[in-house]
Amino acid sequence: MAVPKRKTSPSRSGKRRSHIKFSSKNIIEDKKSGEYRLSHHLDLKTGTYKGRQVLDPKE
After folding, report:
1. Residue 35 belongs to a domain
2. Handedness of CA 21, 42, 30, 56 (dihedral sign)
3. What Gene Ontology molecular function terms does this protein carry (predicted)?
């Protein structure tokens, strides 16, 4: 059975987990409505995507 010989220090375990983190979302302000939304996503309030009407607007 494999058992570690020494205790892993907090700095060593932190180095191992250095790439495990949250990435920030790419939030932009819509040019027409001024609402915040994710880039490359449909604006649900107006129902537009890339300047074209895709869905009926929510009311």
Report:
1. yes
2. negative
3. structural constituent of ribosome
Q: How many other C-beta atoms can be found within 10 angstroms of the C-beta atom of residue 43?
A: 19
CB atoms near residue 6 (< 10 Å): 6
Cβ atoms of 39 and 52 closer than 8 Å = no
φ, ψ (nearest 5 deg) of residue 10: -60, -35
* Percent of the chain residues past pLDDT 70, beyond the cut: 97
pTM: 0.53
- pLDDT of residue 59 exceeding 80: no
- Is 18 a domain residue? no
The residue-averaged pLDDT of 19-40 equals 88
Three-state SS at 29: strand
